[in-house]
Amino acid sequence: MSAAIPVEQIKTITMSIYRYDPTVDKKPYMQDIVVEIPTDKDIMVLDALHLAKNQEPSLSYRRSCREGVCGSDGMNINGKNGLACVTPLSEVLKRDKITLRPMPGLPVVRDLIVDMKQFFDQLEKVKPYLITKSDTPDIERKQTPEAREELDGLYECILCGCCSTSCPSFWWNPDKFLGPAALLQSWRFIADSRDEATEERLDDLEDAFSLYRCHGIMNCVSVCPKGLNPTEAISNIRNKLLTREKA
Amino acid sequence: MLVNEIINAKDLPVMEFDGIIVGGGGAGMRASLQLAESGLNTAVISKVFPTRSHTVSAQGGITCAIQSDDPDDDWRWHMFDTVKGSDYIGDQEAIEYMCSEGPKAVFELEHMGLPFSRTEEGRIYQRPFGGQSKDYGKGGQATRTCAAADRTGHSLLHTLYQANLKAGTNFLNEWFAVDLVLNADKAVVGVIAFKIETGEIYYIKSKATVLATGGAGRIYASTTNALINSGDGIGMALRAGMPVQDIEMWQFHPTGIHGAGTLVTEGCRGEGGYLLNKDGERFMERYAPNAKDLASRDVVARSMALEILEGRGCGPNADHIFLRLDHLGPEVVHKRLPGITELSKTFAGVDPAVQPIPVVPTCHYMMGGIPTNINGQVISVDNGEDKIIDGLYAAGEVACVSVHGGNRLGGNSLLDLVVFGRAAGLYIEETMKQGVELKDASNDDIDKALERLNKLNASTEGDQVAVLKEKMQQNMQSNFGVFRRGDLMEKGIDELAKTREEVDSIFLKDKSATFNTARIEALEMQNLFEVAEATAITANARKESRGAHARDDFTERDDENWLKHSIYYADTKEVSKRDVNYRPKTVQAFQPMVRSY
Q1: CATH number for the domain that contains residue A12
Q2: What amino acid positions of B are annotated as catalytic residues?
Q3: Taking the model in full, what pTM does it have?
Q4: Does A143 touch chain B (CB under 8 A)?
Q5: Which segments of chain B have a pLDDT < 50?
Q6: For residue B402, is the peptide bond before it cis, meaning its omega torsion is within 30 degrees of 0?
């Protein structure tokens, strides 16, 4: 923020932020950081965090692209998971205050940074890559526009973790239930006309926990910053499993 | 051993790999995939989880003559366009290699699962992009950019990550590489790196080190680049005594969203969008009568800047240009450009299917970088002679191979990073088969690479990052932007010189070893500063206008004196010249011509 903003175009807001550095703090605490923001234009929650960090350089959070495509800055904003970089401050400020916490359900490394290991371990279990067995052609594999359209709403996932860390089933069984993000990826490959491992993929999901712990709570859908629908992907996999048994 | 202690070589733990890749973007993960698939013990050191790398933000596509849209398309036409786009200082052997190997590299990506958009025939969808032509500029606009909607970079990066998982690559995710370790022969034998989460620090020893750290757009105040684009590889190379080439060549993308800097793909204009000034005039018809809005990026960016300077900008402050898409209809806009729709709504508050997007030329891409040959081997220049540095490779934006010369064509960066990430991997694979013996580094050698960290830990007072960064970014923005002038650049260079000492002795207040982003930002700031200073000094030395380097005081291209690469070393701060490669292997070289679109 440039220092040249006229005074009448500035207001102060309070950012109540979860702080915890395990090497220094005995336990986590909430810190109020007061920052000055412009009133003549909207800024994002991430911009406000930068202002807070200028005052408190020890404040830690992840960030990279600052445009909602890299998935770094998932966090809990006023009780709801979202990406700080594409959440306008005006939409979340309540009486000039905002509360920021790390995404729930995963161990906190420091401040707003969670340990994503469990999340990525579950992703790896669904073999999130194309598996083909037939000969590789000299040029590309053909795919019709209609077949390609099946991947819309699936391939756009940015692995931010907002969905899985807002899912009660994932909180309870983060090691056994794969969670919405991993299951969305599973369906992304089952749905791909080029993939040749559907049966194996379905076999891997046929236990009481991996898939079936989804209770259709749909928190994943309501928080996804990309507007994706993991619940629908999960129900597509269920249908596929059911029709397979009948056959 | 932790990163906040007094660190010395003799107590430092060592990890060992055949090959390490610094950077988990497109170039890095394409190189690592090649090595991992060949069975070499390979590790990617990435300061962010790999899919957070800046490749993810690439939108419009990857340019390549795969003959989907046009069965008669020819990689030689693509080569011609790229040479012309470079304003004739792109190395033709490298451009020939990129354009001819390109189709193989693109089909490989498809085989890995990249969800390209499709044609009715089921082939990869291609769209027109700027600077593209058929038949060596004589056959009109070509349609050569392979796309996955407007999320091609995201698709490419995720696909490469997936392929690396499948291949068993070791990932050191959220590890920060600090500096290169050189042995007595000045060969590179690994890096110093620490795990950001815990602060555990190691000497990571390797027979081959690939720098794939991407660009450094954050030297400017307004950029399309991610916050992580801090030129880490450039900083490491310059401190280790290696040169950078053509580092004055910075691309300003015509269409960054006004105020936010976020990118709006050239694919918008490829799909039929165009630019308007405040009078509603489609002004590119005046500047580039043939290619119009699809002229080369440097040409479009300058035209826009002139429109604004001459008072024909849009908005209450007449400080931006409108990009119009609504005439394409909601079907095209939403289907072909869904990401742009999302970004425009979020950052400009407009739906491009209804209203124009306010845009300005915004710093986007570093054409220069660490000079390499087509195998990715880093080159130093001694008395005009090229010399290969043992053990060190570079690929992608950090490298200057040089396929972009003075100006990069849209869609050529993704091609560059897969082709040359792959090429470096293939070459390393080959050398490993023959056996690589490099002298071990001594403790003194390793201690040199630890100096920066120890100094930071010892700091007790001085300026912190935020202050220094803003000063540098404003300086670069004001004095080294789209148009440049000698007296202003000299002022800018003086300002940088005055800040140098403060940057070298930057103050780190928070000394915690646990996920300390303040330490990372301080180390990044020092890297950015190396890039800024190299840019400033080299820009002032190139006394001509070529490609993206446009000077008000030397308005013409000067082929007699400057049909050359610039070479800069940080220790002497001197600029020298290196010959441009005009020796392609299978075609006649394209000779410099007047460049018009």
Answers
A1: 3.10.20.30
A2: 297
A3: 0.97
A4: yes
A5: none
A6: yes
